[in-house]
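The step that takes the researchers longest sounds almost clerical: writing a folded protein down as plain text. The outcome of that step, for a single protein, is printed below.
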Amino acid sequence: MASQKQLQELLDDKEAVLNLSRKTKILISILGSLLPVFFGFLKLKGASLVHFSDDAGANFILKCTLVLYYTSWAFGTLSDVSDLEIAFIRVPRSGRIPWHAILIASTLTGVFAILCIVRTAEQFVLFLTIFWFYDHVSLIYLVRFIVKPAYDSSKKVYNKTRSWHRLELLKITYDYVAGGWSKLRCLLGLVGLLIINLLTFTFIGPIVTNRLTYSSLNFTIALAVLCFIIVVEVWIWAMRIRTKMSQHLYNRLLEKYRLVRKSRGQHHAKSGG
């Protein structure tokens, strides 16, 4: 059993987690609100968003794609923060947001804003590639310097207090944030963007457009971008839903059953048999 002092320390640590979570959500909400305001200002000034040709179909597809991507990115990030808030008990820097995390989030928002005001298909594909690469490099950095230390620290606390159920929930959440599936998604996403870049900047684009009997190369590019966004976003949301379902199922089991952690001897005996 944990002593009164240990319980108070745990409460203080959890308050730091909640504090970091609140600040992160506020930061995401502020940055997420800036883009619609920016778009509205441009429209009032008479500027067109994502309008790099007279191809109405291509422009419509790209605008829908941007709305889909932005909505998924903003709400998905808030969902991820909520999951981390539930699972973690301790975070570095006493719950303060590091300046480099603010810089990363601000830069991502800036690159996404550029995506919405580009004038050519080549520029759009270029900045989409930059955004994808920078987004995943940022994730690797944040996992290494913020999430991983928080995970190690929380794991140590749960082991010390013998909170095995919370330890399992922590592992489920961490596997989602830093699991191998994320790296695979990043690599396959780069392959997809490579194909889109080949369509955009090489002779392959006109050949594919003629074969598919599309009216313009811009339409081919817009359709390729839409398919890319749908695949990668459905992938990440499927993993989010899987993680939430795993957490929910585990909590339901705890409500009905008393789960006991196997000893190392029992585990080895079962493995050997």
Remarks:
- The longest helix spans residues 4-44.
- Residues 41-45 have pLDDT under 50 and may be disordered.
- The two ends are 34 Å apart (CA to CA).
